Amino acid sequence: MATSQLTASSISARSLASFEGLRPLNGKFGSPAAVSLVSHRSFRGLFVKAATTVAPKYTSIKPLGDRVLVKIHSVEEKTGGGILLPTTAQTKPQGGEVVAVGEGKTIGKTKVGISVQTGAEVVYSKYAGTEVEFNGTKHLILKDDDIVGILETDDAKDLKPLNDRVLIKVAEAEQKTAGGLLLTEASKEKPSIGEVIAVGPGTLDEEGNKKPLSISPGSTVLYSKYAGNDFKGKDGSEYIALRASDVIAILS
Question: What are phi and psi of 158, to 5 degrees?
Answer without folding.
Answer: -95, 5
